[in-house]
Design brief:
Elements: E1 9-16, E2 21-27, E3 41-45, E4 51-53, E5 63-67, E6 73-78, E7 83-87, E8 92-95, E9 107-112, E10 115-120, E11 122-123, E12 133-136, E13 143-145, H1 151-154, E14 155-156, E15 159-160, E16 163-171, E17 174-179, E18 183-188, E19 193-198, E20 206-207, E21 209-211, E22 217-221, E23 228-232, E24 239-244, H2 250-254, E25 259-261, E26 266-271, E27 274-284, E28 290-305, E29 311-324, E30 329-334
Parallel strand pairs: 3-29, 16-20
Antiparallel strand pairs: 1-2, 1-30, 2-4, 5-6, 6-7, 7-8, 9-10, 10-12, 11-16, 12-13, 14-15, 16-17, 17-18, 18-19, 21-22, 22-23, 23-24, 25-27, 26-27, 27-28, 28-29
Length: about 325
């Protein structure tokens, strides 16, 4: 996202028992307003949904989503070859072309330029001969199978055993992915060529964001502790430059007898150094009921100098909000 091009809204997609996905829109304005509530916990009610993404009733379909580069379209791929597109302006859902192969282990949905990429998050021995990834050029109207990564991506010692993707990010015309016990690979989207970058893995948990205006660093959740990291990915192997442990809701971990954290968090970059982090939190109440919240942290990373003149990045936390989810809500993702 270019400097000065700041987003004004966030989109929350809530998976539901019904079993549709409901889309909510919230303004980021109150999250960064100065005032006495900075740093304090604020409880809010999740606004009514602006629309929904339907799932076939007879299937246990998972839909993995991403926000397209236009900032207004949520694009998703289902485990059963389905492609969906949700227009956040009109609230209308439309169907896209069917994929070439199933993404039974879930998918990383990666918008890049005018294309959409879908990478299988998990490959097993049952996936031999099935495509690892596909790309969609909207003008073409069809998905295209990506070239295969190097042989050691699928196979270890000539056997195809479980291959689990652990992290990814994009920069320029490259997609970088790490696979457990394999290492890190990059895909040149123009030349459609894979290359192994090293036996090391990216230190992130799932998606990371490369932010050129913040010292060309890559930001994401720590693979072990889930707090925010800033990593120099131009080094090989990458070097962790900053770690901010207080960006993870430690009170959830410290109250594990009554609180639980769903495994997938969300990190959104709004521009001008502003980020939002979201986790789905489960909490047991004193009357024996379970409530579900979206724990949302708004923060800004700014450039400063030390007394010796050394340039560094510093984090400024703004507001922390908990949005109460309805009783039928299961988990939420932020876009």
């Amino acid at each position: 996202m270019a400097v000065g091009n700041q987003r004004k809204h966030l989109f929350i997609v809530m998976s539901d028992k019904k079993p549709d996905y409901f889309v909510h829109s919230i303004s980021v304005r109150h999250l960064f307003q100065p005032g006495p509530s900075r740093g304090a916990m604020e409880i809010r009610i999740l606004p009514n949904p602006t629309g929904q993404i339907d799932k076939p009733i007879a299937t246990h379909e998972r839909i993995d989503l991403a926000l397209a580069d236009d900032g207004a379209t949520l694009v998703g791929v289902g485990t059963f070859k389905r492609t969906v597109m949700y227009d956040t302006r009109s609230g209308v859902t439309s169907s896209g072309p069917e994929m070439q192969g199933r993404k039974t282990g879930g998918a990383y949905v990666v918008p890049l330029g005018d294309r959409l990429y879908a990478l299988n998050r998990c490959l097993t021995g049952y996936d031999e001969g099935k495509p690892f990834g596909e790309d969609l050029l909207p003008a073409s109207g069809s998905w295209r199978i990506l070239p295969e990564p190097p042989p050691d991506f699928r196979y270890l010692n000539d056997f195809q055993i479980k291959c689990q993707l652990t992290a990814y990010f994009t920069t320029g015309d490259h997609i970088w992915v790490s696979a457990q016990e394999r290492g890190t690979y990059s895909f040149h989207t123009g030349r459609r060529v894979w290359r192994k970058e090293g036996d090391w893995e990216l230190p992130f948990y799932h998606r990371a964001l490369f932010i050129p205006e913040l010292d060309n660093l890559c930001f994401g959740f720590c693979s072990k502790r889930r707090h925010l990291l800033a990593v120099d990915v131009q080094q090989s192997p990458p070097v962790v430059r900053y770690t901010w442990e207080d960006t993870f809701p430690k009170w959830v971990r410290e109250n594990g007898n009554v609180c639980g954290l769903m495994p997938e968090g969300s990190l959104v970059y709004l521009g001008a150094g502003k980020f939002c982090i979201a986790w789905t939190v489960l909490m047991d109440t004193v009357d024996g009921h379970r409530k579900t919240f979206i724990h949302l942290t708004a923060l800004q990373i700014i450039k400063t100098s030390t007394l010796t003149g050394k340039k560094q990045l510093r984090i400024v936390k703004h507001k922390v909000c908990c949005y109460k989810m309805p009783s039928h809500g299961l988990m939420a993702h932020l876009f």
